Amino acid sequence: MVCENMDMKTVRKTKTELELEITGEDETILHPITHILLQNNQVEYAACMADSPLATKKRLFIRVKKGSPEDVLKKAVKYLEDEIKQFGKNFE
Fold first, then answer.
1. What pLDDT is recorded for position 92?
2. Which candidate, 37, 13, 10, 34, places its Cα nearest to that of 23?
3. Domain limits of the chain?
4. What is the reported pTM?
5. What 3-state class would DSSP assign to 35?
6. Is residue 63 a contact partner of residue 43, using CB atoms and an 8 Å limit?
7. pLDDT value at position 1?
8. 7-89: what CATH class?
9. Cα distances (angstroms) measured from residue 10 to each of 40, 45, 83
10. Per-residue pLDDT for 29 more than 50?
């Protein structure tokens, strides 16, 4: 499993912004989460970045117009999880 060795650290947190540093994970999971975040009307800005393509540490930035950035992220992850489960059921 890809996320077994993932470590996540909060770099910066305000009322409307959240910046996470993620180690042990590549863009395989971060890009879909970012894509889902950007579809949410509450999200003003979302991006995942790295210093270089080979960097082991990635950053996820979220800025919301309203609500909590943590709650918006949790909803995005839950949505992605549900989508993946549904995709898997198509093979049963």
1. 74
2. 10
3. 7-89
4. 0.85
5. helix
6. yes
7. 41
8. alpha beta
9. 22, 17, 26
10. yes
